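hiii, so i know i said id send this last week but things got crazy w the move. better late than never?? heres the sequnce for the chain we talked about at the cafe, plus the structure i predicted for it. fair warning i was half asleep when i ran it
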Amino acid sequence: MWWKGRMTVDDLPDEVKGIFRSEVHRGQRNTFIIRLAVAIVGVASVLAVGNSNSATTRHIGVAAGLGALAFAVVGLLLARRQAYPFWFKYAGVTADATVVSLVSIASLYNPSGAYEVLLFPTALVLYMMFNMLTALQFSVRLSLFAAVMAGVQRGLIFGYCVQQKLVVLSSTSVYGVRAVATDDQVITIVFIVVSGIIAAWISHTARRLLLQSAQATVRKRKLEQTQDVYRRYLSPHVRDFAVRHPEAMHMGGARRVGAVLTTQIRDFDKVADQLAPEHVVEILNGHYASLVEIIFRHGGTLDKFTGSGVSAIFGIPTELPDAAGSAVRAAIEMHQAVVAWNKERASGSPPLRIGIGIAEGLVVVGNVGSSERMEYTVIGKAVSLSRRLRASCLPLDADILINSPVHDAIRGLYRAERLSPEATDAMEMDSAVYRIDLAAALANAFGGGVVATASTTR
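okay and structure toks below
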């Protein structure tokens, strides 16, 4: 049957339930608004044609209309609550059919009597209209209840007219004669019931579409929340690369050339010992936020947070025309940000200093982990070299150390000093190491220009 496979609200997530119930509540409120409008029009109509109706008809009609008006007002007042009482919607359907039946009974006291009640289409239209109105509440049971309620009441009125011999019955349809055909009345009742069944079908379809829409809305919200998380933890380049090339975001790797940058706060353990734990976390979060913003601005990809520093990749997964240069510019700006941050901090707080190592070379890049959780990262000689350069900043009193390929990329742009072979051997480096003259770079940066172009020494 058509109602099989009906979606059960209780089996859905709470967020979906909330959206669905909010829409149902809105439909109930709109139902009472329509009831209020119909009641006002009904009372006005009874008063407008009062002279053509009997006094009894007029009194019953006005009373029924005012009752419907009061019920609609009560329903709108209840609409201020999160939800109507469960039974109230069934009371509303009962009231709808009963008001129409009362108006029909009132018309029995008119000169045309039962013939007006059974042959005039007003009651039929009102029964069907109120049946269709139940579709706004997305309840199949309510629509079927309305169909039965209206059909039974209309049948009782017809039976009463026949039992009291208020009409003459005819075996066939007749027009222009004071008689009614039983078949016609049965068909009228069937139409009333069918209108409720149609409303039930509409309720079922609308309910299913509403639940699907609610689920889609929840999925969209979760996707937006996930994207927000991605914005915090992933470089825009990785995020965009994954969107454009989903087939590449699988477990596995590829060899690529890129520049790896790693940072570390010098003697952070000593700094942390002087501060409260929540202050330490606050410092790290502010520091990370500043560094990540700089990495993204220079086209880098955040690899991971490493204790008191970060690791970033330049030129991977999207190529950069000057990956090593971008990494150096990012490193200089990071130092500039730390200097500015130290000046803004309260006096008495220990200042921060960072060391940065940058190495360009061949790395293996890809997703590592499991099918449940993967991490986009790089491994290889350049990664380990970058970490050793960063670790050597403190003993060598350097701010930024770079390897030969990075130096070749920035030659003529930044002043750099080649470390002695003794220092290089102590670091277990198999290639030349250079220390960038950060003081000259920052002096020009704070002066309002770009970092000065200067010759490098070898």
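btw Residues 220 and 226 are 10 Å apart (CA to CA). thought thatd interest u
miss u guys!!
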